[in-house]
Amino acid sequence: MLRVDLNCDMGESFGRYRLGEQKEILKYVTSANIACGFHAGDPSVMRETVRLAIENEVKIGAHPGLPDLNGFGRREMKITPQEGYDIVVYQIGALNGFLSTFGEEMQHVKPHGALYNMAAKDAKLAQAIAQAVYDISPNLVLFGLSGSELTTAGEKIGLRTAHEVFADRTYQSDGSLTSRNQNDALITDTEKSIAQVVKMVTERKVTSQQNTEVLIKADTVCIHGDGEHAVSFAQYINETLGTNNIVVTAGFE
Which leading EC class covers this enzyme (predicted)? Predict the structure, then answer.
């Protein structure tokens, strides 16, 4: 029987700014990527998100991003591999501090936004991020874009990796995500989005914007928690995967 993880970016509120309905969406996902304060999040939000994830038996991961609150971590920055290593170690450490107060262990690390996309193509940055994760704990799972430099670097260093696919993003013929700067980057039709996910999990293929079939591996599916209908979409995709005999679980081999 096919298995797949459902992950969601969480803890992205900070100060008086509130984003997403965390309490509800945690009922339908199996892994939570918690912002660590650089692109979003703050100490109080991190603690509360950890608590909610534990209450809902959702596995917890660090979601380190570039130090860019105003740009929500989605603007590229010129950083060295060493800087990439350092900011990932720093942010994992911040979340680990809260996890230790609950007696909980971290499952995974998933870079955010521009850092994620940069590491998908930049082998040296990918290697630095993988090394940072490995140095914290070789038992952590590294989430990266399916078939990217990041998953390659994780596998090479000996980490368990989760090849990630996206429910609401379109793809290019090389397997990369369509840039958010383009009008066709996001899939807004719920049925089309879910059909894409089912195809990626069951057939290991995705149809690109160039109308070519791209081979893809789907260990974990990202759904975004800040959309207008995020909760109902999370529930729908969870149920649809079940009706297609796909077990939704965070268990990574």
Answer: hydrolase
